[in-house]
Each structure stands twice: as C-alpha cells, then as structure tokens.
Design goal:
single chain, about 550 residues, alpha/beta, Rossmann fold, DNA Cyclobutane Dipyrimidine Photolyase, subunit A, domain 3, 2 domains, 5-stranded parallel beta sheet, 9 strands, about 5% strand, binds flavin-adenine dinucleotide, Crypto/Photolyase_FAD-like_sf, Cryptochrome DASH
Length: about 550
C-alpha cells in the first residue's frame, strides 16, 4: 500500500511510511500458501461441464466460496466480471455520480489484482461491459454452463439484478451432456444461479434465530460461531477456451475524469494490498494491541485498521480477519483491543442482517421506524457541507478529506452526519447519497444503516445522538492538527498575522429553519463556541 502526504506545511505532522515492496510481495504469498488446500485432486467425481463464477462484491480468491464451489462441481470454471453501466449512472434521488472516480479507480485496481491472482492459479478473468442479465445468460448458452455461482446480496438494486439474471437464465436451454452423448435419453435444462452467502463474518445460516427476528438493539445481537476460511486449491484451471478475455476500461471510458490523491491516505485496490494491510497493521506495526485506544482518531493511517474499502469490495474476507485476530491473541496478546476489532466487524454484520430484515425501508426518508419529520433540501446549505465550506473547521476538514481520498474516519462520519441532519436540518438521504458517491468503502448496508442511525430514523429508537461540534473538536482534535492538515489555508492566515478565524472563517452558511430538530439555539451556540475553540487553538501555535 502506498501512503502519501503533501510536501507543503503542515503535512509533516502526517508522516506515514510507505510499505516497502518486500512486504507487498512476501505477505500475500505466504498467506495464500497457508490458505491453499494441499489436496487439489479432491474435485468431486460428479463434477461436469463448465460453470461460471460471476464476481460481484467478492473480488478475492482467499475464502471465496462461490469460486470454490464452482471449481468443485465442474471441469472448467469461467470467472466473469460485468461492468454494469448502472453502477456508473447517478444516485437514486439526488443525481450524484453513483460511483465517484476514486472508488472507480479502486475497483479497477481490485479487478487487475483479481485477474493476476486468478492467472497464478491457472485461470483468468473475463471482463465484459454490459448488464449482467444480458451477459451471464448468453455466456451460459455459449459455454453450455450448468450453474452460475455468485455471492448473495441483500439490497434492492442488487436483488433486482439477481432476479433479472435468473429470468435470463430460464430462457437458456442447455442439453444435458451425459445423456445427449449416449443418445438414449435427451433432457434439456436451464442453467441455475446459485447464490452463496459470503460477505459477513457470521454466516446467516448460523444465527440462532431467523434473521427477521434480529434484535433492534445491537447489544442484544452477537454470539455466533464463525466458520473457518475456505481453502482453495493451488491450481483451479484450466479455463475454458475464450478468444478474448477483455480489457479493463479506462476511467474516461467509464465517463469519469481521473483524480490524483494529492494528500492523505492513498488506498490501493485488490486482495494483495488488502492482505498487506492486515499484515502491516496486525504484525509488522503491532497496532492491533492499541486499537481500542486509537480507533477514534482522525489523522494518519494508523489509528484504525482501514480495512473497510477492501471489505466492501470483497477483496478481504471478514473471516480471514477473525482468524488473524485469533492468531494474534495466541501468539502475542488478547486484550480489549483485539476484542474491539471483532466487535466492530460484528456491527458491519449487523447492518447487513438489518438490510435483510428491513428491506427497502433502510432507504426511505422515515427509515425502518417510519419516523415522520420534515427535512430541508436546501441546495446552498447542502453544497456548503458537501464542498467543505460551512465555516466549521472540523466539518470542512472532514469533507475535504472525503473528497480528496475517498475516506473519512468513523468519528468524522458521525460528526458530519450529525451536523448535516441536526444542525442544518438537511434530508439525511442527501448526505447518504453523497457518501455513496465518494466513499471507497461504500456499502449500502453500512452506509444507509449508519445514516439512519445518525439521523434518528434507524431501527433502534435509543440511537438518537447529537454531536456538539466544539466538544468533538476539543476531544478528538485538541491541538487542531487534523484541521490544520486538511485546511492549510488557516495556517497561512495565522502566519500572515491576520485575524484568525475572523477573516476567512465567517461561516458561509446561513442557518435556515431548524424547527424539525428543535436545536436552533444549539446551532448558533455551537457556532460561536466552535469559533472560540478554533481561535484558541490557532493562537497557541
Ligand atoms: C454516516 C456513516 C456512514 C458510513 N458508511 C459506511 C460505508 O458505506 N461502508 C463502511 O464500510 N462503513 C461505513 N461506516 C462505518 C465506519 O465509519 C467505517 O466502517 C470505518 O470508519 C472504516 O474505517 P476502518 O476500516 O479503519 O474501521 P475500524 O475502526 O478499523 O473497524 C474495523 C471494521 O469494522 C467495521 N466497522 C467499524 N465501524 C462500523 C460501523 N459503524 N458500521 C459498520 N461497520 C463498521 C468496518 O468494516 C471496519 O473496516 C459509516 C459510518 C457512518 C457514521
């Protein structure tokens, strides 16, 4: 993974070393070997024909059950990825780009890495452009495929695609190979889509209750056994004869303009970089032992794991992280930090299961509880938030980080969410859709789950928290380092001995009506206090 920081002051305070190439090469190979089954002759005796692995948000080899099942049940495996144009269209309500340029770049890196790793195992990745419901059935027909394996998704857009693929496959008729070759009986069949659960640490089938009975309070959830990672054989080939495996598109072909990450953390997509990050965070830098104390940080690469972009694309298996935590506990130490990383991963599972329980209501303005509240959709206010020019250093710094890197800390996300919905009174879905555009780790369940919580319309009525911006700044950025890193113009003003923050920091937003939150007074109070905090901080320099 490469991490970069700007050369101009005050970026020195954000010094993050680059992971050297030896680590990049060594760690994954070692890990891959550990998770490679030595018994590669175990392919089922009933395996037949060709099967397709339709890669979606499971862009990895390690612990990939659809890939394993496809290999087990067929003579040849055809791995496919479809560049679905709908992923590069616009968001549902507010027309933002559905996939921002940084996540698109991350995705391209994931796919390049997946192809490389598949080739190491004797396969390849067929890359095609179009809707899966058009591509998958015609491939199934062309290759006489009996089964298409894919990871199961839970949200409506993905479920609609699954349904369309199933309908498309039903139109395809594949002659049954054994019977047609004997010529005795001839039966025809349509290829099946086999969807496999694989995105969470807890398997949905291992929950001790039906997912529709998921508790609405997170602390009442948890306690479930975790399956071990699936080992795949070293050799998965040979692939079927394919004339042209297809190229990765450029960003321009996806309708996007490339954007360099000029400062902050630069994430590299793909399983290789994901495994390197696990190695770096757990073993090389030994950061796992202090995770609980550092996890609320905002500045730098090391305060939290930063696993989320790889988890969201499926380049990293949560069960693999679980196994590494357990290994760490055996080989180094078990403490509240090792417990807490798994606790956070269970939050991620919880939001995924909630999406099954609550379906589309996760995306509705009233959320799962159908809360009646009026929201503003004021464009000026929203844009000041989105572009990081509200006048509140902590908010603006976080929003700048998001647009520059595609990442924001969990602390930052909670703060900017609270500010948008409670101080500005803006429709929470505008914030959620903007996050959908920008986040490298965008995942509908975690994103909309957290936004419904943050805006008080989530399933748990007790989760209705207001974040006081000055208090958050004092607690989590007491020296103003984070703000200074992302808003260096404040530092320049200080140097010019101009009156900070008065000149630049006249809040550019005009408070509208905050009747819906009932927090009008708090807002103006918060603004004054925030300015005072900033002033004090800057005078200290
Ligand atoms: C408004 C809002 C929107 C969010 N949108 C997303 C999103 O689209 N995708 C996403 O992965 N996370 C989302 N989160 C959750 C959380 O902010 C990120 O998962 C976390 O910041 C990622 O950094 P990390 O990997 O260093 O986390 P760590 O602190 O190292 O945690 C380890 C892992 O636990 C999981 N996790 C931690 N906190 C949460 C949480 N609150 N909800 C769900 N999973 C969690 C993540 O997979 C994370 O990688 C959102 C949070 C908020 C408040």
């Amino acid at each position: 993974m490469s991490l970069s920081s700007s050369s101009s002051s005050p970026s020195q305070m954000y010094h993050v070393p680059e992971l050297d190439n030896n680590d990049m090469d060594h760690v994954p190979d070692h890990t891959f070997q550990k998770y490679t089954s030595s018994n590669s002759t175990k392919r089922g005796s009933t395996s037949k024909g060709t099967s397709i692995v339709w890669f979606r948000n499971d862009l990895r080899i390690l612990d990939n059950e659809p890939l394993y099942k496809a290999w087990l049940s067929s003579q040849t495996v055809l791995p496919v990825y479809c560049f679905d144009p709908r992923l590069f269209a616009t968001t549902y309500h507010f027309g933002f780009p559905k996939t921002g340029v940084l996540r698109a770049q991350f995705l391209l890196e994931c796919l390049a890495d997946l192809r490389k790793n598949l080739m190491k195992r004797g396969l390849n990745l067929l890359i095609l452009h179009g809707k899966p419901e058009d591509i998958i059935p015609s491939l199934a027909e062309a290759f006489g495929v009996h089964t298409v394996y894919a990871q199961r998704e839970t949200c409506s857009e993905e479920l609609n695609v699954e349904r369309s693929v199933i309908t498309g496959l039903q139109q395809v008729v594949i002659p049954c190979p054994e019977e047609s070759s004997t010529g005795v009986t001839h039966s025809n069949d349509s290829p099946k889509l086999q969807l496999i659960w694989g995105s969470t640490m807890y398997h949905i089938d291992d929950l001790s209750f039906d997912v529709t009975c998921l508790p609405d309070v997170y602390t009442q959830f948890r306690q479930c056994s975790i399956r071990t990672c699936i080992k795949l054989p070293a050799f998965l080939g040979p692939p079927p004869a394919v004339e042209e495996w297809g190229c990765l598109p450029s960003l321009e072909q996806l309708g996007l303009c490339s954007q360099k990450v000029s400062k902050g953390m630069k994430f590299v997509g793909g399983e290789t970089a994901a495994l390197s990050r696990v190695y770096e965070y757990f073993w090389k830098k030994d950061l796992l032992k202090v995770y609980k104390e550092t996890r609320n940080g905002m500045l730098g690469s090391d305060y939290s794991t930063k696993f989320s972009p790889w988890l969201a694309s499926g380049s990293l298996s949560p069960r693999f992280i679980h196994e590494e935590v357990k290994r760490y506990e055996n080989e180094r130490q078990a403490n509240s930090s090792t417990y807490w990383v798994l606790f956070e991963l269970i939050w991620r599972d919880y939001f995924r299961f909630l999406s099954v329980k609550y379906g589309n209501s996760l995306f509705y303005i009233g959320g799962p509880r159908k809360v009646q509240r009026s929201w503003s959709q004021d464009q000026n206010l929203f844009e000041s938030w989105k572009d990081g020019r509200t006048g509140y250093p902590l908010i603006d710094a976080n929003m700048k980080e998001l647009s520059t890197t595609g990442f924001m800390s969990n602390r930052g996300r909670q703060i900017v969410c609270s500010f948008l919905v409670r101080d500005m009174g803006i429709d929470w879905r505008m914030g959620a859709e903007w996050f959908e555009t920008c986040l490298l780790d965008y995942d509908p369940c975690s994103n909309y789950g957290n936004w419904t919580y943050g805006s008080g319309v989530g399933n748990d009525p007790r989760e209705d928290r207001y974040f006081s911006i000055p208090k958050q700044a004092q607690t989590y950025d007491p020296e103003g380092e984070y703000v200074a890193y992302w808003l260096p113009q404040l530092g320049k003003i200080q140097k010019d001995k101009r009156n900070f923050p008065g000149n630049l920091y006249i809040p550019q937003i005009v408070p509208l009506k905050f009747g819906n939150t009932g927090r009008k007074d708090k807002f103006s109070g918060a603004r004054r206090a925030n300015d005072r905090v900033s002033e004090r901080r800057w005078n200290m320099r």
